[in-house]
Write a structure and sequence with these properties.
Layout: H1 7-12, E1 20-24, H2 31-39, E2 44-48, H3 53-62, E3 68-72, E4 79-81, E5 89-90, E6 95-97, E7 100-101, E8 121-124, H4 127-137, E9 145-148, H5 159-162, H6 164-172, E10 178-184, H7 190-194, E11 203-207, H8 211-217, H9 224-237, E12 240-248, H10 254-268, E13 274-281, E14 283-284, H11 286-295, E15 306-308, E16 314-316, H12 318-335, E17 341-343, E18 346-347, H13 348-355, H14 362-372
Parallel strand pairs: 1-2, 1-3, 3-8, 6-9, 9-10, 10-11, 11-12, 12-13, 13-17
Antiparallel strand pairs: 4-6, 5-18, 7-8, 14-16, 15-16
Length: 384
C-alpha cells in the first residue's frame, strides 16, 4: 500500500532549523525568546550586544546565515505603510506589521535580496511593545486597517518555531477595526487549524505562479498543489482565503501554464471562498538585478524586455503586461465571475484597459478592498 505523506510534515523538514541562536542581551529573558530557545534545545546560544550593520557582517563570517537565527528587539515603529513607490501606480494602502526580517524559502525574484543589510533571518521578540503600539493606532475612529506580516518575511514559514500566528490571532480575533492577512508560500498551518479561539476575519493568503516558475524560481516553497490543499483546509476552518499572482512572468508557453494554475485553484476552492486575488507583473529595482544574478545564476528572469518605469523600477513593456493581465483575468473570471481582482502597483491605464474601470486614487482602491472584508458587505468594486 502506498504511504500518504502529510504535506505539512513534508514541508516542515525544509523550515529554518537553526543550529545557532544569536540573542541580543537585552531581550534574553523575554517570553518569546525563551519559547524559541525551548523549541531548539540543541542550538548553540550566543549572546551579543546590540549589533549594528558592521557587526552583523562580522558575525556572518563566523556563523552561517543559512543556519543561524537572530532574536532581536525592534526599535522603530512596528506598523508601517506599504512602501508604494510612485503615485502613478495604484497602491492599496496596506499596513505592514513588522515582526521579522528575511526568509529561507529562497525565491530568485525576492526583492529583499537587494535591500536588507542584515544577513541573518531575524525575529523580533518584543511583542508586547508591538501590541501596545497597535492598541494606540487602532483607537483612531473611523479607520479600517488591513494589516499583514508578509512584506519583509513569509508570514508562516517559521511559525512552528516561533508560535507567532496564535499570538496574532489572540490579538486580532476580536478586533473590530482591523483585519489580519497572513501571506505565505508554505503549508505551516497547524497552529491555524488547531487554534481554539475566535479567528475573527483573519485572511490566509498564498502566492501562486505558473508551475514551471514555482519549480524553478521558488526555492523551498511548497508545491502549488500543496499550497492549495492548505488553503482549502484553512477555508474549512473558517479563514477567508486570499491569492496573489505577483510577480507574473512572460516566458514561452506562459498561457498554458497560467491556465493550469487557475484550473488548479478551482479544483480546491470555490469563488466564494476567495476574498481577493491580486495580480502584478515582474518588476525590480536595477540594483536588485546584480544580486539576483549572483544569488541565482541559473535564473533567466531578468533577460526579458524591460523599460524603466516612473518609479525607477524595471518593468515589462506595457503591451506585455496587458497580454498577461487580460489573459489571467479572463481565465479567473471564467470560473468565478464575481471574485474581486485587483492590480498591485499598476497604472490606471492598464486598470481601465483590463477591467473597464480604474480607481481614481489610492484611497479609492483601499476602500474597495476594505469593502471586500466580511464587515463590509457592499459590492467590492465601484464599476458595476
Amino acid at each position: 500500500m502506498k504511504s500518504v505523506v502529510d504535506p505539512e510534515a513534508k514541508y516542515a523538514r525544509s523550515l529554518l532549523r537553526p543550529t545557532t541562536l544569536l540573542i541580543e542581551e537585552e531581550i534574553f529573558d523575554l517570553p518569546l525568546t525563551q519559547a524559541i530557545r525551548g523549541r531548539l534545545p540543541q542550538a548553540e546560544v550566543v549572546v551579543v550586544e546590540r549589533p549594528d550593520a558592521e557587526k552583523l557582517q562580522h558575525l556572518s563570517r563566523r556563523f552561517s546565515p543559512l543556519s543561524t537565527l537572530l532574536l532581536a528587539r525592534h526599535r522603530g515603529r512596528f506598523l508601517k505603510a506599504c512602501p508604494g513607490t510612485d503615485e502613478s501606480y495604484r497602491c492599496c494602502l496596506y499596513q505592514i506589521l513588522h515582526l521579522g526580517l528575511g526568509c529561507n524559502i529562497g525565491c530568485s525574484y525576492c526583492v529583499l535580496q537587494g535591500y536588507l543589510n542584515n544577513p541573518f533571518i531575524t525575529q523580533f521578540v518584543n511583542l508586547e511593545e508591538a501590541f501596545a503600539e497597535l492598541d494606540r493606532e487602532l483607537e483612531r475612529p473611523g479607520v479600517f486597517y488591513r494589516i499583514g506580516t508578509g512584506e519583509f518575511t513569509d508570514s508562516l514559514f517559521m511559525d512552528p518555531l516561533t508560535g507567532l500566528a496564535p499570538r496574532l490571532l489572540d490579538y486580532f480575533g476580536s478586533c473590530r477595526h482591523a483585519v489580519l492577512e497572513l501571506k505565505t508560500k508554505s503549508v505551516a498551518i497547524a497552529s491555524l487549524l488547531d487554534y481554539p479561539g475566535e479567528i475573527g476575519e483573519t485572511i490566509v493568503s498564498w502566492s501562486l505562479n505558473a508551475p514551471s516558475v514555482s519549480a524553478r524560481e521558488e526555492g523551498h516553497a511548497a508545491s502549488l498543489t500543496e499550497r492549495l490543499q492548505a488553503a482549502a483546509r484553512c477555508r474549512r476552518r473558517g479563514y477567508r482565503i486570499g491569492l496573489h499572482f505577483d510577480p507574473l512572468f512572460d516566458f514561452q508557453g506562459w498561457q498554458d501554464e497560467y491556465r493550469r494554475t487557475v484550473a488548479l485553484i478551482f479544483e480546491h476552492l470555490g469563488g466564494d471562498d476567495i476574498i481577493w486575488i491580486s495580480i502584478g507583473a515582474f518588476r525590480f529595482m536595477p540594483k536588485v538585478r546584480d544580486e539576483l544574478r549572483w544569488n541565482h545564476p541559473r535564473s533567466n528572469i531578468t533577460a526579458g524586455e524591460f523599460i524603466r518605469g516612473r518609479d525607477g523600477k524595471q518593468r515589462y513593456f506595457s503591451a506585455i503586461r496587458r497580454r498577461l493581465y487580460r489573459f489571467l483575468v479572463d481565465e479567473i473570471k471564467s470560473y468565478a465571475p464575481e471574485v474581486f481582482i485587483y492590480f498591485c502597483m499598476e497604472d490606471q491605464y492598464l486598470w481601465q484597459d483590463t477591467f473597464g474601470y480604474a480607481p481614481a486614487d489610492n484611497q479609492e482602491l483601499s476602500h474597495w478592498l476594505d469593502r471586500c472584508c466580511v464587515r463590509y458587505r457592499e459590492p467590492a468594486a465601484g464599476a458595476s
